Amino acid sequence: MTIQQNTWRTHFPVLEHVNFFNHAGVSVISRPAADALARYAHEASHGEGLAGAWHRRLEQVRSVCARLIGASGPEEIAFIPNTSTGLSLVARGLRWKEGDQVVITNVEYPANRYPWQDLGRFGVEMVEVAQRSDRRIHMEDVIAAIGPRTRIVSLSHVQYASGHRIDLAPIAEAVHAQGGYLCVDAIQSLGAMPMDVSAAGIDFLAADGHKWLLGPEGAGLFYCRAALLEQLHPAIVGWLNMVEAMDFGNYRYEFAPSAQRFEPGSYNVPGLLAMGASIDLLLEIGLETVWDRLYAVTQRLVEGLESAGWGIWSPRQCEDECSGIVVFEPPPQRQVDVRRLVAELKRCGHIIVVREGRLRASPHFYNDPAQIDALLADLEACTRP
Predict the structure, then answer these.
(1) Fewest CB atoms within 10 Å of the CB: 5, 49, 160, 174?
(2) Report field, pTM of the whole predicted structure over 0.85
(3) How many domains does the chain have?
(4) Which residue, 197, 115, 189, is CA-closest to 152?
(5) Where among 231, 259, 284 does a domain terminate?
(6) Which residue, among 322, 290, 325, has the nearest Cα to 12 in the 3D structure?
């Protein structure tokens, strides 16, 4: 690691103004991302970068994305504007037949529900695995729902409303044994912890860059395992999908052999360059270091909340099921309007949110223990009878 802990603060100017704990929502961007946006704006306004320099840099970003998730190479990576687009590429790209099944959970973020639900008009059945009373999605329940008609299991690696992280590899093995595929919404884990799509058996993955990747909205990545590229028909067809996309008058209707086949038109160049700059930062620090730090600060928050009588909604019994999300509830004896509390905390300099009627804090690796302690103190001060 070449970036030392005592320099982390310089990469996140938000720390000069507020304790930001909403990386599971719309994150602040890192200083390298902001610098990339400023550099693009300067180049664009001065006529620089128009001779292919931006697109050469984008191919470097594609390689960095492949490295981030352990893909076999950049040919498995497509750029997308958001997670919904990536999941829809799979939903709209596979050849479905009546009676096929898609296995999801009953607590998915809507981006990982509606694309599959829409397939009902083709006779595709959506099978929901219920979150149990312990707020976990039990791996055994998902595996039990997989059968000979299962074409896709599509899961959030980390659930947005609980923070529960599921073990994907056994599920991948089970669905592969039935001839199906594993599709993953990784927006709540990518950038917060290491990811290896090969080790996890993931076939398709989508994530936007505006959460834990510390990039801007409107820029994300889609992964398709190389062996499946030609089995997934591009959901949207345009000029850039094609094998000779830059030969405009050729009209050669043949999809690119790489994941570029899923990119129908012009890129969000500034957004992708900014996302790439933040990924560079995360990789230089090391995702193992990022996760170790993030786990430590969330544990400090959980332990402080528990000692003050707050209820922890997020499963936190073992590290492997934890994430950067901590969902919690006020002590039962206190009458607390959680939305009013969030507004009061904002005035005190802390940014958290309400999800499904509960409080959700999602710090990142650069938040320090002193910030967590300040949040705990102000939670008490704002809710004390």
Answers:
(1) 5
(2) yes
(3) 2
(4) 115
(5) 284
(6) 290
